[in-house]
Design goal:
single chain, 157 residues, alpha/beta, Beta Polymerase, domain 2, two-stranded parallel ribbon
């Protein structure tokens, strides 16, 4: 049943699915970033993936494309999981937001923005969630300077 998912994605999105693999029951599809919302909507509406369990990123510096968005989906009805990976490159990395499909993507995307600097186009409130507003840079980027000094937060009385 599980290889059915990857085969279905490849047949439905032949140009968007760049690669698939499965290992010990974990199935992964690597897709083009321009197809993210279409593929995610298909997973939700046609294949029954009703939960976006997680959304995060990986910095593969010095490899290009540098970043990779990683989304984990789960279907309660069918009891199966699927991982989508989406390569994102460029000096100003960006990808479409999934908040229109899953409201829970809101905080996940804010965390990825805050930590990696990946912008989510169409996000309703893309602002820092873990770091303070004056924080400079994105601390989970591999080129973030470990000894970087940050601006001080003004003391409140």
């Amino acid at each position: 049943m599980t290889s059915y998912l990857l085969e279905t994605l490849k047949s439905r999105f032949p140009q968007a699915v760049l690669e698939t693999h499965a290992f010990r029951g974990d199935e992964t599809a690597v897709i083009a970033k321009d197809a993210l919302t279409d593929v995610a909507a298909f997973l939700r509406d046609d294949l029954g993936f009703d939960i976006l369990m997680d959304l995060t990123a990986v910095d593969h510096l010095p490899r290009e494309p540098r970043f990779e968005l990683v989304c984990h989906f789960y279907s309660l009805r069918h009891n199966y999981r699927l991982r989508l990976k989406c390569p994102i490159g460029g000096e100003a990395p960006s990808v479409a937001s999934l908040t229109g499909l899953w409201a829970g993507a809101n905080w996940f995307e804010r965390e990825v923005w805050d930590m990696f600097g990946i912008k989510f186009e169409g996000h309703p409130d893309l602002r820092r969630i873990l770091m303070y507003d004056g924080f400079e840079g994105h601390p989970l980027r591999k080129d973030y300077p470990l000894q970087k000094r940050q601006p001080r937060i003004p003391h409140r009385d």
